[in-house]
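yo, SAF domain-containing protein is done. seq:
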Amino acid sequence: MPTASRSLPHARVPAAPAGPAAIASARPATGPRLPGPVRERRPVLTALGLVLVVAGALGSAVVVHRTGERVDVLVARDDIAPGQLVTAADLRTARVAADGAAVVPADALQNFVGTHATTRIPADTLVNRTMFLAGGTVPAGSAVVGVVVRPEQRPTAPLVAGDVVRAYLVAADGATTVSGQPAGTVLLEAARVVGGSTPDSPSLGAGDVTASGAGDVSLLVPEADAASVVAAAAAGQVALVRLAGATVPTVDLAGS
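structure:
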């Protein structure tokens, strides 16, 4: 009896590994690649940056060097009032950095002795030439007149250079005034005291100019009023009252 033949199951044959060509063909197709950005070299900007760095370093060195340069200059020793006659004792020297400010060298001290302050100068202020008016110089349109004042013709507190006063015409015991005007007439609305003297201190500039007894006070007055003030002063018919420090005189040294 014939034997039936059995069909054996087919064994799976492993697939051969894919080669490079097969892998390449399996990849999806892509377009052409764009070139990457190229880094631009900017030598001009680099050089400019170096120049700025060097310039900054040099500038800093100059500042440090100039800070070390110190010179002797003039400084107000104490407060100096407007119109005050300046003496050597009113100024001192200080050593400061030379930074180009409008300062006055210490060796120029004698150029300022005998001048008048044109403004109020606080103590320890670095002075400059615009703060002073030459002693022999009188601003245009003005004159300096001397007025003799007795204790009853002035404030109890002594007048000092820099004060602003009002001048009145007075007459003793009802006498006629030298000008014929009534007593109490205002001779000067506001005038700056620029100096004065007393019998005990003949050349006062700053401080008390009428400490005791009679003394004379130098006033800066409008030129048009000088004659009438001189006439009244010669007759002893001028009385002075002190005004507020902020009062602006009719004529002044400041800005001259």
